[in-house]
Amino acid sequence: MASLPGGTWTLGDLTVTRFGYGAMQLAGPWVMGPPADHDGALAVLREAVSLGITHIDTSNAYGPEVTNLLIREALHPYPESLHIVTKVGATRDDKGGWPPARDPESLRRSVHENLENLGLERLDLVNLRLGNAQGPQPEPLAKPFETLLELQQQGLIRHLGVSNVTEEQVAEAQSLGTIVCVQNGYNLAHRQDDELIDRLAAEGIAYVPFFPLGGFSPLQSAALTKVSERLNATPIAVALAWLLRRSPNILLIPGTSSVAHLRENIAGAGLTLSEQDMAELNDIAPAGPSAG
Ligand SMILES: NC(=O)c1ccc[n+]([C@@H]2O[C@H](COP(=O)([O-])OP(=O)(O)OC[C@H]3O[C@@H](n4cnc5c(N)ncnc54)[C@H](OP(=O)(O)O)[C@@H]3O)[C@@H](O)[C@H]2O)c1
Is the keyword Oxidoreductase assigned to this protein (predicted)? Predict the structure, then answer.
């Protein structure tokens, strides 16, 4: 395995590179429909694997179906080292919305659609995605999580995680079964999960920030610009290096539709940040109570 910034992490019994790839935005504008450049999307996926990335994040809701089909077209049969992580719990409507789909029948259908579109007999890791576009919401987790536990017992899912969740929902999932990761929105400027990250690190559970670069609204901050200029690096490189440094259980899944950006991001995440750099970057957003 090529050496990528951050080294590796173990999700249950699966070793993944901490530098992964988020495939969502391959499905074109608003994550609805085919990519502007189909062959370019295949090239990004193939480059990710050839550069040594062994963790790809996806969902059958991306496109819908488009991203999973691109992954299959680009990479199937998959190298043994590659682990594709998907999520269930939301579907798409014809306006591009993400309505919840958490009843047992929808969850079962979604797991089977992921298996079929990705060309797999078992999914390595499935995240139960709750909440909505505004973030986690106080809603019951037990029923949908139990449906996924049943599918896991049937051998269709190897490991489970939760996404877009509150600390209480994480704890509820842990009271029902084993989770190997939590995937929530988090970056230099949005640090509501600091305490959760530290708790999960102590328990050996991965934290996978979505929107590590700000998602649809790129990260912007005077302090980030200042540190980047001092290091002669891009703000994106600094933001990724900060996440890797923030905690050893953080796994990166930055998205890009460009081979050049993918290469740049891998190189950038390897940037060394000094204590002074970290202190200035930590001041960008109010940190949670036990931020390290
Ligand atoms: N669980 C959930 O509810 C949830 C929600 C959202 C996302 N996710 C996951 O999180 C992953 C990451 O989120 P994301 O892709 O939306 O946001 P992101 O990683 O924060 O940012 C992606 C954006 O950054 C741009 N970018 C990347 N590298 C760049 C570079 N070197 N220079 C300039 N621009 C660059 C990309 O544009 P280019 O294409 O031009 O490079 C893209 O517009 C997704 O792929 C998805 O798998 C999960």
Answer: yes
User: Tell me, what's the pLDDT at 289?
Assistant: 52
Rounded-to-integer distance, Cα 6 and Cα 270, Å = 7
Q: Domains in the chain, start-ordered, CATH in brackets?
A: 10-217+248-256 (3.20.20.100)
Give me ligand 1 centre to Cα 22, in Å: 7
For the residues of 132-179, what is the DSSP string, one character each? BTTB------HHHHHHHHHHHHTTSEEEEEEES--HHHHHHHHHHS-E
Cα(191)–Cα(105) distance, integer angstroms:
35
Query: The tokens of 3 are what?
Result: 């050496």
Confirm whether pTM is higher than 0.90.
Answer: yes
* C-alpha to C-alpha distances, 282 to 13, 34, 203, 240, 291, nearest whole angstrom: 33, 38, 24, 13, 9
